[in-house]
Amino acid sequence: MKKTNKLTLIAILGALAFILTLFKIPFPGTTWLKFDLSEVVVVYGLFVGGPVVGLSIAVLKAVLGFVIEGSSTGGVGEAVTILSAIAFAFPVYYLYNISKKIVLSLIAGTISLTLILTYVNYIFITPFYAKLFKMDYIINMINSGDNTYLNYILITYGPFNLLKGIVLTGVYLIIHKRLLETYKKK
Q1: Average confidence score pLDDT of the chain
Q2: Quick check: 61 and 21 in contact, CB under 8 A?
Q3: pTM
């Protein structure tokens, strides 16, 4: 693929991914957990253009979000968006290239997304937000020394990331064959 074609692909798919971030799906039982379908575009970009294109799409959608919508997290939310795209899309891409089994690849992406994002929420994201927004109840859980905080993370973020992965898998399965056929014709 020519460099200008790659740049055009990144621009178009990055803009599409950003547009999809505007349509957030709320997670039942919480007011702050929402996800979108933009990782589907990142997966497609990986298949069409490779790892640099996929990563560029993930970064571009986050940068567009930061510039157009602003950030209440000092860029941390946008960094998590990039990490989420990488955690889901790259395992899908690499496993599919080895196995040619899209369902298996998407399941691996879902597991990767769930494990990585739940862990990162435990180690960094939730403590950061708890301090930033002075969430004393979470800070108290973290400082308690027992399993309360770990249980909170596992019960809240584990199912959220798993559901996000399942939804992304379902949507991508619906469009996978058609997208790849369309690309191969060109």
Answers
A1: 91
A2: yes
A3: 0.90
